[in-house]
Every structure is written in C-alpha cells, then in structure tokens.
TrEMBL record:
<dbReference type="InterPro" id="IPR036866">
    <property type="entry name" value="RibonucZ/Hydroxyglut_hydro"/>
</dbReference>
<feature type="domain" description="Metallo-beta-lactamase">
    <location>
        <begin position="73"/>
        <end position="242"/>
    </location>
</feature>
<protein>
    <recommendedName>
        <fullName>Metallo-beta-lactamase domain-containing protein</fullName>
    </recommendedName>
</protein>
<dbReference type="InterPro" id="IPR001279">
    <property type="entry name" value="Metallo-B-lactamas"/>
</dbReference>
Length: 270
C-alpha cells in the first residue's frame, strides 16, 4: 500500500502527514484557492480515474504518464539509449500496469529529474525498478520523501552513462537540470529539458522563467550562463515536459536566439 501523502496540486509525495506543502507555498508554485488538499497513490489507483499512458515521442524516446495527468500533469521520457533505458523526469501516477509496460520496453537503469516540481512519486518509481534517482544537491531542501535511492550530485555536469549527461543550468531552480543525449534524434542530438528550457507554442523559440504560474522572469545572469553552457553541445531536437512539447529541428539555434531575445528584453527593462 502506498499511503504516503501526496499534494493534489503539485503531486509531491511526503514521508509523513503534514498540513503544508512547501512546494506549493513557494512562489514558483501556488496553493489553490480551495486550499491545500491531500491524497495518496493507493487512493489514486483505486479511484478508477487514471490509466497508464505510454506513447512514442521521438526516435528512441517514449513518453510515460497517465490519462488524465495528475497534479501538474507532466509526462516522463523513457530514453532508449545505447547504454540502457533511462527515465528522465517523473510522472506522478504509477501502478502495476504501468510498471509492466515499462518493463516490456526493457525496464530502466536509473532516473534523473529536472527540478522539484517533478519529484512527486520518484521514490515509488525507484523502488519499483530498483534503481537510483539522481538529483542535484542544490535542490536537496525540496525532497519530500528522503530515501537511500536518492543520489545527490554536485557541480555542473554528471555523466549517468557514457552517452547521457546531466547539465545543471540553474534556471527555474538552483538545481535546474537538463539531459543531453548526443545519440538522440538519430545521431543529431537531443536535449531533454523539462521546463528548465521551456518548449513554448512558438516552436521557433523557447522560454526561461523563474516562476511559470506567477509569471516571474528568470534572472538575466542565469539565462546568460545557461546559454553559454549549452553552446558547448549540439542537439537537433528539444523535448519539454508535456506531451508533444517538442522542438523538432534547429534546437541548438532555437536556444541561442531565444536567450539573446530574452536578454535584449530583460536588459532593456532594467
């Protein structure tokens, strides 16, 4: 039974019952006008509301989530890398049927998550597949359910395999991280960005925000550093946090020109 409390607004799972959700009380999220409400994974499973959703999103990339989405509603991405399957980000809902579908695809060797809004049921996923979860140490304070499966890393990059690299950009959260897969997009490279680099409706650009729901822009110095870090990588496609939120072509150029546009507007207003 998975009865650890989960916030209904953001999906964060906590080790014990509490009245507040620090994630929602932070200015990068919000407490709904109806107030803080709680559930748990067992209740979600028994409700009959949620079913697994597993769909291809691109070459070697399978979206993993639920229908409907729960809380924030992001989907994860199963990276079918040469080194083995790896799960990027985390969807809140998990049941035996979803575990079985992922196992049929070859299981997973590890998990990495872009930022705390998607930590949610990461410990459930780690236990179900007996794998580690890699989180940047700068966001340690936001972990709702500590567990030995959680592995903190520091610095700017971490190679979780010889063909998969985590890059700490510091956008949105200090530990805000993206995943670079050089073999992705049939060898042209793919950037898995969560909403650290946000795929927006105009696919010719991406966005950078400190708080999305409360419309607080990211600091110019952080965006400048992120663009400089990503200038050292090549990638054709960018995969965001939502179903079909994908920049299919010219991903590298999209990031660089978006950062230039952002900085031009931000510095003009300074």
């Amino acid at each position: 039974m998975s009865t650890e409390p989960m916030c209904q607004a953001c999906g964060m799972q906590y080790a014990a019952a509490r009245e507040d959700c620090p994630i929602c009380e932070d200015e990068r999220q919000y407490v709904p006008q109806s107030g803080q409400q709680w559930t748990n994974l067992s209740a979600l499973r028994s409700s009959g509301t949620y079913t697994p959703r597993v769909e291809e999103q691109g070459p070697g990339l399978t979206g993993v989530g639920s229908n409907p989405g729960f809380a924030i509603g992001q989907r994860a991405l199963l990276v079918r890398a040469r080194s083995g399957n790896f799960l990027w980000d985390c969807a809140a809902y998990l049941d035996d049927a979803l575990v079985a579908q992922v196992e049929e695809l070859g299981g997973i060797t590890g998990i990495a998550i872009s930022h705390p809004h998607y930590y949610t049921t990461m410990v459930e996923w780690a236990h179900a597949f007996d794998v580690p979860v890699y989180l940047h140490e700068a966001d340690q304070q936001w972990i709702g359910r500590p567990d030995p499966a959680v592995k903190l890393w520091s610095g700017t990059t971490l190679d979780v395999a010889d063909d998969l690299r985590l890059i700490n950009l510091g956008v949105h959260f200090d530990g805000g991280t993206v995943l670079h897969w050089p073999d992705g997009e049939n060898g042209q490279g793919a950037l898995l960005s969560g909403d650290i680099v946000q795929v927006i409706p105009d696919r010719t650009h991406v966005g950078f925000m400190y708080s999305y729901p409360n419309l607080i822009p990211e600091r110019p110095s952080v965006v400048r550093r992120a663009a400089e870090l990503l200038a050292g990588y090549r990638f054709e496609a960018i995969y965001g946090a939502w179903w079909d939120a994908i920049v299919r072509t010219d991903g590298f150029e999209v990031v660089q020109r978006s950062a230039k546009r952002y900085l031009a507007h931000a510095l003009d207003q300074a």
